[in-house]
């Protein structure tokens, strides 16, 4: 039993007196610390004595005690967007100064910013000699309630929670924090590790490495925090639970298939354009990855597919059922965003990937697949075949199942899917040659990449503040993002552009966790049709010419979980041609994407 100060008794337990962790926990309660958490379970953080561990406190607990200070504090004021920042981070036992990275992700906006994150290297030495091996030499990640951590409000548990321990050489994308973390080599001699961090708007593909050399950051002059609030209930005195069974090792990260892409389609009003029909007898070569400058030594993890529903429901038809050609109800229909059963963009292609490991000897497997509309099948980067549809009528399930030869070891299976209009989805399962054993099936464990089908990138004409100077443009005006660039399909369009063709500009936005509403601000010369996932949302004109010109904006847009496509189909009615836009969070505080040369375009 523990009691807060000013009473004298710290604890009174018959078994815990012989446990170093218990004694330390009960003493630290008197300094204001609460129990450690993991996965929503109190006490379950074994990296600290405040949970079920016997080692020193975790990084946020050391900070709250005033026993250690951060190497750096990262927030929107100190942390540049889309630039990797590198730090040489010492282990916490080296302390007390500069032994953690504290992150205040205020770039998420007031509604989404609820927790702070702490990054710290733990190593088995000195006061941490009893640290468990699962945390030794690894980057430990904790989070806690930001209202307590930033202001030390009295009362309540900040719920210091362990969210992971990353091995050297690993990386993780935290879409809930809009962060990409890269963990370098652990130097046992100096007990340091190289940590690389970037914050992004939509995904880690935005991040680039600066040209400046790596150097350790000097610690800031932190002052110890004020006395924290009184803590909660005591630690149970029952014996420590046995450790859980080890998890299965993670799958190897699948390789992206290298596919040269078909020519982009010509847009048509009011929908963005559909891709040209593809002949099944002439499959494309695998996609070329877009080059990154400068290249990262790590490959950012790919997002996971979104399950739309069972294949039996999504592809109901004469070829689907327990005794039909396609007979696996556990194969899920997947796409890159929720809601694709109703409609999806035709301006992107999605490549879904998984891996299969074969032991002993090479084997032949059978692939059953249904797709809306076209799928190119790749095994280890080699194009096997191309199929269309499969569920619509009894004779539609042709050239299937597809025979695939799998060598010994781990093979990559990829399905590059194109939508020619309406809904988009794919369902597949790979079974043994006798059809009795399913080796893999489509579900949310598959990852995906998106490509713009070789569409060229937009040309930046200049800042929106310069190109659309007027009464509605400025830091305190209706359109207030100077980083949104005016773009077109060629340079010189600020003076004159053709009126014969329309240009469709496209980007993607990835939403994790739950669907959200966003706000689109846009100025256009002259008319823009706005599309989300292929659905026409609205049409707007101009916006910068006079004070009453910025009507029906910002445009409210609902973004589902997954990767959505935002397209602006722009028509010029004479003179200059250009468009500038930015999409922000519902409170207007965070820009999710803005027009620039990363957007692609099609003309027609």
From TrEMBL:
Q: Where is the composition biased (Pro residues)?
A: 213-275, 283-303
From the broadest rank down, the organism's phylogenetic lineage runs:
Eukaryota, Viridiplantae, Chlorophyta, core chlorophytes, Chlorophyceae
Domain named Peptidase M11 gametolysin is located at: 15-151
Query: Where are the stretches annotated Disordered?
Result: 212-308
**Listed InterPro entries:** Peptidase_M11 (IPR008752)
Name of protein: Peptidase M11 gametolysin domain-containing protein
